What does this fold into?
Amino acid sequence: MHGFEHYAIININDLDNVDFTQIGETSFDTIRKSLDGSMFVIKWKTEPDFIKDDVVIPLQVLSYQECLELMNTSEWSKPFE
It folds into this structure.
């Protein structure tokens, strides 16, 4: 299921340039944000125009597995106590 999806880490300053109709999230409320609020994750199956046209330049483009690993880092997840 996840094999064809791509994930991108985007700077929060680019949020206004994201067309939510072209990605797997529906709004600012549904995106995963880094703990400090400086970055967020989007996913897609077909590359969105705003990335293809360099309106938004991702900080990183990741596979599903790479994204899972990143989400488990201290930048994205609070440690369990």
Summary: Residues 2-71 form one domain. The mean pLDDT is 92. Residues 64-71 form the longest helix (8 residues). DSSP finds two helices and four strands in the chain.
